Amino acid sequence: MTELKLKNLKSWFQCIQKCEGKHDLNEIIYSCPKCGNLLEVRHDIEKLKTIPTEKWKKLFDDRYMSSVWPYGSSVWGKKEIVCPNVENDNVVSAYEGGSNLFWAERLGKGLGMDELWIKQCGFNHTGSFKDLGMTVLVSMVKQMISEGKNIIAVACASTGDTSAALAAYCAAAGIQAIVFLPKNKVSTAQLIQPLANNALTLSLDTDFDGCMKIVQEVCSKNSIYLANSMNSLRIEGQKTISIEMAQQFQWEVPDVVILPGGNLGNVTAIGKGFSLAKELGLIDKLPKIVCAQAEQANPLYQSYLTGFKEFHPIKAGKTLASAIQIGNPVSVNKAIKTLKKFNGIVEQASEDELTNAAAKADKTGLFCCPHTGVALAALFKLMKKGEISKKDRVVVISTANGLKFTDFKTNYHTKSLTGVESKYANQPVELAPKYDEVLDTILKKVEQTKN
Hints:
six-stranded mixed beta sheet; 16 helices; globular
């Protein structure tokens, strides 16, 4: 079975606070008209609960990575609880999701941990978890256009990965994408993705927060749809990471989930996925959520130190974790609400800590982006503090593919990063083509590895 017979199943936008009023998903609206807070997508939970839990599990398991359109996508395989408003003919999908839950056995054992897992979201179509949200947003835009809505383009501000996802999905849908990037603050590998996918790429001499301000103004005054994570359609796709993790653990829940946080939509999404899964009886408990921030861009961490009593935007400093170099995150209220519900922790990582954490993980077979390095550094620190137990089943969300950050890797191993002690640097050994020299070098390396 690939479909459930739930008649007139619809979802809608509603204020994250207690303001009354529902807004159709095909309405171009991003914030509550009464209080100005962000909106979230709500579902008809009572109707969804009429389906027995075991039937949901069987449905999701039967669809998982299948060839039946569009349910083989791990996002659209959960269509009823993601976005039932989109007709299948309007789904724009690259069969996202289904990413590897990698058992980091060597890395975990080195820390004395029983179970450490890495959710490899960088294995998605454009190399990051952003695809999971963008498939929902672009599909909904295609649905709205088919209904006669005047939308001439879709736009986003980005530090790299969001622009790549938007460009690819818009290209597949035949919709013009516009991306606003901070000049000289994204990697070459990230910059080439929207260019290759024919997006209008605007390089602005500002930071991400400056790009965000401009894109919001452009979208509010023109028939251009906003694709940043303040648009909660994105959250609906990204929340499937949580449900998929539970599915990959045979519907069990990890004790701790650690993820890097910048604009903080991902924190909200992970929490929302687990909450919905528990409400439908798919899981029986909620994990602890840890948000990891770069020390140079840590407004949520600073708020956490006050028990979230205060939050003050900051001017983000330069960090190698460029995708989370954000000082004024739009989803901060949602994220704080999520962390309070999930007994959450916020930790930070210095440039030295995040680079060496990524390199240490790479030595055990991973290939981590700098943002995953931030999450791993947070894990190492929380283990030392005793806030994460060696017995805990821990999942670190790897948000992007390390191949997008080859300059980061190269500069680390050539010891070219200012303020970073490259503890695990590994460089090519140049030798003459002589057997004795080659063999001697090999044997020395083998002996070092033993020790």
